[in-house]
């Protein structure tokens, strides 16, 4: 797997048939190790071990509906009231962060209404704070740590 621009962590990879699996600490099971999953697992560990988010507030591949279509978010962090706080869209290293990717996560967030939106391909990370009243996205220099107001 590719080296990423995220802190390394102690991961467990096993092989099952032709697939490599990585242990997911949130789902508590091995999942197929795809390039996108590699980025997601790094970001999960970054949120927990570097930024201090509790595991209990993080959800992976949560289903949501948008315009009668069923969609899945890569990762959603909730606040203590159970409301979406941070929405993360992961892409594989070779996938560039384009306007289409930004539009995808913004579309998901119209339904979820998370305060922060993050997009990462493991090398580039973009974070915005969302103001729903003014319908604006303010770029942030880094992903905010766990300190709910």
Automatic annotation (TrEMBL):
Short name of any one Pfam family annotated for the protein: HSDR_N_2
Gene3D superfamilies, alphabetized: 3.90.1570.30
Positions of the Type I restriction enzyme R protein N-terminal domain: 35-144
Top-level taxon of origin: Bacteria
This protein's name: Type I restriction enzyme R protein N terminus (HSDR_N)
Species per Swiss-Prot/TrEMBL record: Pontibacter chinhatensis
């Amino acid at each position: 797997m590719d080296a990423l621009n995220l802190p390394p962590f102690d991961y467990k990879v096993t092989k099952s048939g032709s697939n490599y699996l990585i242990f997911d600490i949130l789902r508590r099971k091995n999942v197929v190790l795809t390039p996108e999953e590699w980025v997601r697992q790094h970001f999960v560990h970054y949120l927990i071990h570097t930024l201090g988010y509790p595991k209990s507030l993080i959800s992976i591949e949560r289903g949501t509906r948008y315009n009668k279509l069923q969609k899945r978010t890569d990762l959603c962090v909730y606040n203590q009231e159970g409301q979406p706080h941070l929405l993360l869209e992961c892409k594989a290293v070779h996938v560039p962060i384009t306007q289409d990717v930004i539009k995808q996560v913004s579309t998901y967030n119209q339904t979820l209404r998370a305060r922060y939106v993050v997009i990462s391909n493991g090398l580039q990370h973009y974070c915005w704070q969302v103001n729903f009243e003014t319908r604006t996205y303010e770029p942030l220099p880094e992903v905010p740590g766990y300190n709910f107001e």
